[in-house]
Amino acid sequence: MSSKIHYESGLGNYISTEVVKNTLPLGQNSPQKVAHGLYAEQINGSAFTAPRARNLRSWMYRILPSAVHSEFKPYKHSSWQSFPINDQQSPLQLRWDPFPFPKIDVNLIDSVTTYCGNGNLKMNVGCAVHMYSCNESMKDYFSNADGQMLFVPQEGALLLATEMGQLEVSPNEIAVIPRGIKFKAELLGKNARGYICENYGSPFQLPELGPIGANGLANARDFKIPTAWFEDTKKTVRWITKFGGNFWSSELKQSPLNVVGWHGNYYPYKYNLNDFNTIGSISFDHPDPSIFTVLTSPSVDTGTANIDFVIFPPRWLVGENTFRPPYYHRNYMSEFMGLIHGEYDAKKEGFLPGGASLHNRMSGHGPDAITFENASAENLKPQKIENTMAFMFESQYPFDVTPSPLNSGLLQKNYLSCWKDLKPQYK
After folding, report:
1. CA distances (Å), origin 155, targets 193, 221, 339, 370
2. Domain residues for 304?
């Protein structure tokens, strides 16, 4: 972590932060004249009339308001798609080799390639799952009016400079950029690769804990929120925005990251996956993977998520008389999986860091044959799963797969063979 970046902590907290002293007005949000000749601007992440507990908004005090820009022109992006799409889908289980690094210079936004998605962005339902692989920092600025973006770096650290401040995010960390917030991504190394969940639905929040109680899983205090930081450039820059599934560009008189101070509860944030407090069985059986939920985007059907972000971190397995890897299952929920590093405990071969798999609704999946044989015969004693971090984007809606990953040459045509050696053992 850079020593120059300071964070506030606590997801859901109301944050007040300023670079220049006395920027934030006292006792009101929009005074007749803002201090230092700044403009007051509110950004809303929810409807004005959303219940107080779900109402998201921040006030920014900036050098120029967001209304100052040139006319929009179409911006071509050939590999980022939005949903719904009309391609016919199969229930086949799918798995891909790692997404390659680019052979030409490309920044993060231009490198985004859509793997799958669901729902309808114009109805605020569903999500899209993308891969990025880049070797160049962004010169332009970007915002997404269609949804919030959850970044899961797999290789290479990023500096996400946003309107609200800076986030430095490395593999084994995640970052969330809310809908509409402008930002640019700078590489802190030669290359960067990872996964993005573009959430069309309700904003991510911490899951309810129910019988777990007050503590456990991802704790609010471990989420980091940027403090105010700004650019005061005097040159014309380009801003690219995604709206309604299309891309548009516009010119700005200066950097849009010109917020000198802000206060509110609508902001970007980061989280270190190593801070996750894993809950598990200490008697028997393998609990459902929902106990590994970091963030959830709820739907109107309580307990059935628009999208869940789930991780499989290092942990102890101690279940007695128990098949300890994930059990064989067919789900109502659909699962897109990625691997940040190490080995996933249900797959001994073929699932590599930077790769991905998709098990759609009611498609059977589970441990490969080697894992089944080993886990069925091993001497059961306390076992520590180490040096691994896998994750899952899990949605109640089936995922549609775009043509690009199906025709990329990365699709493992023999994925089904990982189960071919499973034999009937009934006696």
Report:
1. 5, 26, 11, 28
2. 276-418
Which residue type, as a one-letter code, is found at position 232? Answer: D
The string of pLDDT tens digits covering residues 155-175 is: 999 999 999 999 999 999 999
Contacts of 299 (CB under 8 A, 6+ apart): 125, 201, 202, 305, 306, 396
| 424 domain residue, yes or no | no
My answer on whether 302 and 393 are in the same domain is yes
- Same-domain check for residues 122 and 81: yes
CATH number at residue 305: 2.60.120.10
Cβ neighbours for 349, distance < 8 A, ≥ 6 positions apart = 368, 370, 418
- CB of 137 closer than 8 Å to CB of 104: no
Domain count, the chain: 2
Give pLDDT tens digits for 190-241.
999 999 999 999 999 999 999 999 999 999 999 999 999 999 998 999 999 9
Q: How confident is the model at residue 3 (pLDDT cuts 50, 70, 90)?
A: low
DSSP assigned state of 407: S
**Residues with active-site annotation:** 286
247, 273, 299 - which closes a domain: 273
**Confidence (pTM):** 0.97
